[in-house]
Each structure stands twice: as C-alpha cells, then as structure tokens.
Amino acid sequence: MQTIDATNYSVYFDSSGYEILASMLVPTQYSKLFIIVDENTSEHCLPHLLNNLATEVAIEIIELEAGEINKNIATCTEVWGALSDLGADRKSMILNLGGGVVSDLGGFVACTFKRGIDFINIPTTLLSMVDASIGGKNGVDLGNLKNQIGIIREPKAVVVDTHFLSTLPQNEMRSGLAEMLKHGLIFDKAYWDKFKNLKDLDTDDLNALIHQSIQIKNNIVSEDLTEQGIRKALNFGHTLGHAIESYFLEDETKTTLLHGEAIAVGMILESYISKEKGLLTNEEYQEIKYVISDIFERIDFTESDLEKIIELLIYDKKNEFGKVQFALLSGIGEIKINEEADNALIHKAFEDYLQ
C-alpha cells in the first residue's frame, strides 16, 4: 500500500514500514529504544515485531496492564519511572506497539518525559490503525472521563502492519469498523456505501478500506491539526458515544464497552438528532441505523442510565462556554460542526434507538 504523508510524519505499510524503521533506528540517532506493550501485544504481537526489527540500538520492553481502565496518570507515572530506571535520556525513542490505549498513553508519556522524546506508533488493532495512531492526539483519561488530559504532538512515523489483525477477536475488529463507518459518514458517501455488504469483502478489500480510512482522517487533520474547525468533524458519534463509554466504565454493574461499540450507538443517536434538526432525511437516517445495527448488537439503557449519561456530557472536551457541542450530519458524507441539542431531543434519540 502506498505511503501516506501527514503534516510532519508519514504512515508506512507492511514491509516498507520495517525498512523505514531500520533506516531511522540507528545508534547515531537514538541512544536506546523502548517498546511499550500491554499484556496482549506482548504475547501476540511483540515476537512478530522483533523478528522484523533490524536495529543495533539497545532495546527495553515496558509492559502495561491491558484495558481502558489503565489509561490514566497513575500508569503514566509507572512508565516514567521505568524509563528513568532503565536509563532513558532525551535521545531515546519509544515505539508504541498496541491498540488505542497504548498509542494514546505511550504518546503522552513520550511527549512529557524530559519535555519530549521521539515516538513511533505501530498500531495492532483495526481501531488504532484507522484512528488512535493517526493525527497526533496523545492523552489519558481523568477517572472515567475520556481523554481529559493530553497534548497534540505528532509521532516520527506510523507503521501499519495488517498482519497484526489476525491476532484480534471479532469484537475488536467490529470496534475498529465503527471509526471507518464514521469516516464515510462525515466525508465520503461512496466510501460509506462500500460497507453495506461487508460479507462480500475479502482481505484485499479490507486492506484498501483501511488505507482509504487513514487517508480520510489524515486529510481532515492536515487542514486543522489543533481542532479549531473542521477536525471537529471527527467527533461525530463521540459526544454521546464517549459519555456512554465513560458511564459503562464507571458503573460496576455494566459490562464495559469497547470504544467502537459505544461510538456505534453514538453515531445512531447523533444521526437521529441530525434528522430531527432537519439536517438529514429520514431515509438517510434509516439507512445509517440499519447498517450500523446490522454490525453492532443493541445496547440496553434504563431511564436512570440515560440521566447519568446526559450528566456526563458537560465534561466533553469539545464543549465551549458551558454548551455541549455536536458534530452532526447534513447528509451522508457531509458534516456540520458546533451544533447544539437539548436534553429532550437527546432523550428522543435514545427512545428511537431502543425501539
């Protein structure tokens, strides 16, 4: 697959990525290489990476506990401590080998250790390939509130090796599909249309869709790195989706949702809001609801759940002057940012979702 050039770095694919790594990771450039993994990527992905990593730079492995619940400052403190104990300096390099948690947290650790050292993302999940590893957002959660602490700083490179997808369970693959569907909905109707018959797609089709999804996100981010305008389009489905994800993470009686599972619900809800505000036709809304519901199982909510989820909206990082901001659809493939919706309309969206 062809290399994608971002603002200050490039996204490389498969074998070409490892060739680039070999040319970058040389002793004259970096004093030591730290690979951040979690329990899962340490077992399933690290051996493949090490077999393909040609470097004379000394390597140290730092392993995290897996899961969104560990994406916090306490974990960062442990990693900063490990870096110090293992002799990291300002000429060290961090490789983030993992999904969204490893990419987000590892990037944040790199950006803040000794006021910033270089890092490279090697995403191992579909979600991190098309979303978390791209665009320079690095950060952690504050308690159960998503991505409240962070910084925007781009990596030195991203290496996408689709071999890692063979290690994923089906629910993790579906989670990544949510962000790919979003890219079609906000930017490219023809791309969205390709997902209407997923069962007809083969591996080559998936690789092409991954490449196109990364290109869509990169096009948007390249216009607006610091999210002052059009980059807010990428938040479609995330205002309510993040609130749902945070609530299910916080409530011990709930089964924790994967990011994409929560965002899938958020996209249906925010599509309904788009329809009710006259931005989206009912036909378009029904198509979106059908396609997403065909891939993701419905999540049940009680009235108490809804009240608590709506309360969490005030913490959304996109809010301005105390008002909840939505990115809504003005047609499939079109977006309208900085839209508001009152609680009554949000309740109606949940009611329609639960029908």
UniProtKB/TrEMBL annotation:
GO terms for molecular function: 3-dehydroquinate synthase activity. CDD domains: DHQS (cd08195). Residues 62-174 form the 3-dehydroquinate synthase N-terminal domain. It comes from the Bacteria. Its cofactor is Co(2+); NAD(+). InterPro entries: Dehydroquinate_synthase, DHQ_synth_AroB, DHQ_synth_fam, DHQS/DOIS_N, DHQS_C. Residues 176-319 form the 3-dehydroquinate synthase C-terminal domain. Its EC number is 4.2.3.4. It holds the Pfam family DHQ_synthase. Keywords: Cobalt, Lyase, Metal-binding, NAD, Nucleotide-binding, Zinc. Catalyzes the conversion of 3-deoxy-D-arabino-heptulosonate 7-phosphate (DAHP) to dehydroquinate (DHQ). PANTHER family: 3-DEHYDROQUINATE SYNTHASE (PTHR43622:SF1). This is 3-dehydroquinate synthase.
